[in-house]
Each structure stands twice: as C-alpha cells, then as structure tokens.
Amino acid sequence: MLVVGIDKGTSVTKTAVFDENGTQVVSASRRVRQFHDGPGWHEEDPEDTWARTAETVAECMAALGPRAADVVGVGVTGHMGGAWFVDAAGRSVRRAIAWPDTRANDVVARLENGPDLDEFLRITENGALPGMTVPLLAHLGPDLVDEVHVVLNAKDFVGLRLTGRMASEPSDAAFVPSDIDRGTYSARVLEILGARAWSGKFPELIPSGAVLGEVTPDAAGLTGLPVGTPVVAGLGDAPAAMVGCGAVTPGSAVSILGTSWLSANVVPDPHGGARGIGWMYPMPNGAFAHFVAQQAGSSTFDWWLRHLAPDVSGTRDFAALEAEVLAVPEAATALTFLPYFSAAGTQAPFKAPNLRGTLLGLEDATSRADVFRAVYEGLAYSMADCYSAFGRTAETIRLTGGGAASAIWPGVLSNIMGVPVELLAADEGAALGVAVLAGVAAGVWPTLEAAEKSVVRVVRRIEPDAELHRAHQHQFARFTTAQRMTRAFYDDPRGTA
C-alpha cells in the first residue's frame, strides 16, 4: 500500500509517495510562480499553482507505473496564512495572496499599538503577522465580499481541486487566526482587526485526519490518481512537519534548522507559554504545537561563510571547516556572538525589532576557527533562548533541516539544553506528516501513534554531557548579558546605551 503527501510550498510544490514503512518511493517538484506587483505584494495565480501541483502528482504516478493502483490515500499540506478566494462554484475570484505578503502591516501595527491586543492574544494565542488571513482581509476591505463564497488556505484550495469540496481543518484555521479554545473562527477577531464584513466567508472545519472527499474524475485525469482515492483534510505545513518527525505527544519538541530556525514544543493545552511570541496550532491528537521562529539561522551562518570561508560557501562542503571548529574547545570561547542579522531584529523569545548582530571579544590572536566556534554556539544559544518562550521544558529535541547534518550543532544543542537530541532518517517533514494522516484514514495504520512507530526512525541519539552543560550555562549567561546590553544600545535613539 502507498500513500501520497502533497506539500504546496511557498516557493516549491512537492509531491512524495511513501510505503507502509515511511520510505519515500518517488517524488517530484515544481517551482511556484509568484507575482510582486506592488510594494510587499506576494501573489499567485491559483489555477497556475494547481496545474503545477497536479503535474508533480502526475509525474509521481507515471514513475510508479502499475504501482499507482496501490495508492490508498492522499494527504495535503501547505504554507499557512494568506487567502485564496473562490466563488460558490469553486472558481477563483482573484489572485491568491500568500503568507509572505506584507501589505497588511498597517493592520498589525494598529492592533499592536491599540487597546485590543491582549484580548486578541487571549483568544488566538497567536502573534499577529501581516500575512495572516484576517489582517489581509481587513486591508483589502469589503469590496470583494459579495463575489467571494469562501476564503481558503493554500492546501484547502488543492483539496478543493482534488475533491470538489470546500473545507478546512483546525491547524490552518488557527493561523487565520481563530479562537484557539473553541477551535472555530472568531467573530470577535474579525471585529478587532476591522474585517467584520468578511464574517461568514470561511469554509466548514472538519478534523485534520478526516476524509475531505475522493479524487474526482477531472482531478484523476490531471494527476493520474485513481478515481475515488480518499483525500484527507491534512494539516498546515508546520504541524504536518511535527507529525512527520514523530513529535506529537506533550514534552516532545522539534527544531527545523533551515534558512530561519523554527522550534516547536508539543504541549497539552494552548496556554502557559509566552503570549504573543510565536504561534499555537492544534495537533490531530488533541495536543497543541507552540512554534517560535528565530530569524537567525542558516542565512546568518551563510553571511560568515561568504566573508570568512568563501571556498565553503561555494562548495557547501563543510567537513574541513567543521574539523577546524572542532579543534577549538566547546563552551570555552572568549567570544560572544549575537546572531541577530535580520533587518527585523528578533521576534522570539521577545520582540526587539532594533536588535542587531554583534561579535564581542575579538583580539589579535582570534582565529577563523575561534570566530566560527562562536557563530555555531551563538546560533545554538539563540535557539535555547527561544525555547524559554514555551514555558515548559522539552524532554527530547528532534532536529531536521539542513543544519541537522552538521557535525557540531546537534551535540552543542544537546549540551546547551541538557536534553537528548535525536536525528531522523527521513527529512520530508510535512509531506510525510500528511501522508501518515492519509494512511491512518485508509487503514494502513490503526492509529496515529502506530503510524509514528512504523515510519519515524531515529538514526542517532545524542545524550548531553553534564560537564559541558555546566560550562554552557556560564557561556549562556554571557550571551544573555550581551543581549541585554546591545538591546539597550540599539533601542537608544542616540545610538548609546
């Protein structure tokens, strides 16, 4: 038996097919065509995106050949937020808006400087972003309301084209945002953000693992999927990645070491963490995943590569560089690095838009390896700092993303956090996560928990070193002291602390 995971990404749409052991059998991808016709605009042609998505599925089915008949279920995930406008017949009303769109900055600014922010955060447990659905609707105003039957999210539009049904599920709804306790859209949130005219323009909500519908003849003709194949409602890409990493029970955590570093902790209820820092998503088993993002990540590391190790920057062969760094003792550097290279400062574990990157402690004897040791550890301290936003301690952290392949970061992160770090065999994340949901619905696995045991394989577990953990606590204290000092410096309009 085979299950299909479709991941409608921001830049790339990918389809992957998995067997009952979670092994990827075949995959295909296409670039997403984007339109930037105004300042901060990020739009897509929905029909072009659907055509490209269908091509990825068709390529996979063709590669499977006769095995395509073994497909028993399809799961769909996609980037969260944004807005996909359709009429009562399911036709697109206008271009879709994707989550990186910033034209609703004015709406978010009014919220964050207004009297209703605390109420908004209590209802949603989600920090506001301009690319969320409701801020975008508030910015657009009521002109389109009469033409629009429902406003969907990206994966929901793909689900509509596959099955003909307009529906969403709780994780995507949470980032609209909605009422986190009731699991429903919130009229009060619409009112607070100035989008009351859009009330009633959201799709029905069904459980994340429930069957949305079956592949229609039209969709089968485009994709090669067997007619009648069940399609589940799926998940937004962030919680889908948690399922794909086997992190679904409270106390488990995942950090995705990509361009930005995204960390998530699974909690039993949505309250208790740092309110307004990050985003809270319902999981399919009744738990919640609290996500925070540090803009500092591989993009920050790449800055140092370009300037200090251009040979590595060009080849992406890190072995020699990491050997240099490993020759410098861990948790002993005289340098302190604050990795806030984003023009937006930092959003977690606190909001400091003016904070910038800083390297302290340079002297004549400082070597390239010393600087990179500080960069590796500074990025890890920033991640540990972000984990403080959860208000709960992770029992184990699973790593995924390109940075998880480092010879340095997994061990350093374990020693800083004082908890085991696990590396996984699969790196498909979100596509695997929704394929798992499809397999559970189709009876490939009896439960989500059973599926996780079958498909998620830990290939390496790193236990923390107690002595290095103590040494890192001293270094982390230096990190937070430097953080406070530079935060005051950059917040001072004169440029002095």
Automatic annotation (TrEMBL):
InterPro entries: ATPase_NBD, Carb_kinase_FGGY, Carb_kinase_FGGY_CS, FGGY_C, FGGY_Carb_Kinase, FGGY_N. Residues 256-442 form the Carbohydrate kinase FGGY C-terminal domain. Residues 3-244 form the Carbohydrate kinase FGGY N-terminal domain. It comes from the Bacteria. It holds the Pfam family FGGY_C. Keywords: Carbohydrate metabolism, Kinase, Transferase, Xylose metabolism. This is FGGY-family carbohydrate kinase. It comes from Cryptosporangium japonicum. The lineage of its organism: Bacteria, Bacillati, Actinomycetota, Actinomycetes, Cryptosporangiales.
